[in-house]
Specification:
The complex is a heterodimer of chains A (113) and B (114).
Chain A (H helix, E strand, L loop, with lengths): L3 E4 L2 E4 L5 E7 L5 E8 L3 E10 L2 E4 L7 E2 L9 E3 L8 E8 L8 E2 L3 E5 L1
Parallel strand pairs in A: 2-11
Antiparallel strand pairs in A: 1-3, 3-8, 4-5, 4-9, 5-6, 7-8, 9-10, 9-11
Chain B lengths: L2 E4 L3 E5 L4 E3 L1 E4 L4 E8 L5 E7 L5 E3 L5 E5 L4 E6 L8 E9 L7 E2 L3 E6 L1
Parallel strand pairs in B: 2-12
Antiparallel strand pairs in B: 1-4, 3-9, 5-6, 5-10, 7-8, 8-9, 10-11, 10-12
Classes of the chains: A mainly beta (113), B mainly beta (114).
Chain lengths: 113, 114
């Protein structure tokens, strides 16, 4: 079954404590991206990756890092989380160069206290 | 740069009635257009997309959308909704060139009443 898997699904943590949200896809997709979803704002793209070792900033990259060492994995790293990063996060992947995400994970709800 | 405006934050409608969810976009370059649906506690699913060709695009679950270049709109329609269509719907746009960047609207919550 085609899947994008995110972990953890829920996390409550404190300001400044580094965390990583993992994302893995089993479809051999080249394109992967991270979004955050906030009420009234829709989804905003944080980072995206066109292939291994190829990443670029989206619209709201501040405070986040990503890496793409393997095709299937695209972790999102918050080096020093702050309360304004409390949000619902989605990872997505695509094989399609028409630039749209095809498959989404089920989301990770982060609360930064 | 692109932007997307979904004109209604909430749309209540009775079961079996028709519905239209409105989306306008702005862009200085040619774009692709998409609609996604998000059910509670789930990720987004692609409903339909406009890449080129016919301006009327049919998607899954009986939805369709019409691309209107002169009005820069991409409204989503369904002739008869079901309770199970209750969800949040997102319009999105991406430039035909310029990497894998997609801009989403703020979403429209469709609430279908019995």
């Amino acid at each position: 079954e085609a899947q994008v898997t995110q972990n953890p699904r829920y996390l409550i943590t404190v300001t400044g404590k580094k965390l990583t949200v993992t994302c893995s896809q089993n479809m051999n997709h080249e394109y992967m991206s991270w979004y955050r979803q906030d009420p009234g704002l829709g989804l905003r793209q944080i980072y995206y990756s066109m292939n291994v070792e190829a990443t670029d900033k989206g619209d709201v990259p501040e405070g986040y890092k990503v890496s793409r060492k393997e095709k299937r994995n695209f972790p999102l790293i918050l080096e020093s989380p702050s309360p304004n990063q409390t949000s619902l996060y989605f990872c997505a992947s695509s094989s399609d160069s028409t630039n749209q995400p095809q498959h989404f994970g089920d989301g990770t709800r982060l609360s930064i206290l | 740069a692109q932007s997307v405006t979904q004109l209604d934050s909430q749309v209540p409608v009775f079961e079996e009635a028709p519905v239209e969810l409105r989306c306008n976009y702005s862009s200085s370059v040619s774009v692709y257009l998409f609609w996604y649906v998000q059910y509670p506690n789930q990720g987004l699913q692609l409903l339909l997309k406009y890449l080129s060709g016919s301006t009327l695009v049919k998607g899954i679950n009986g939805f369709e959308a019409e691309f209107n270049k002169s009005q820069t709109s991409f409204h989503l329609r369904k002739p008869s909704v079901h309770i199970s269509d209750t969800a949040e719907y997102f319009c999105a746009v991406s430039a035909r060139t310029g990497g894998f960047k997609t801009i989403f609207g703020a979403g429209t919550r469709l609430f279908v009443k019995a």
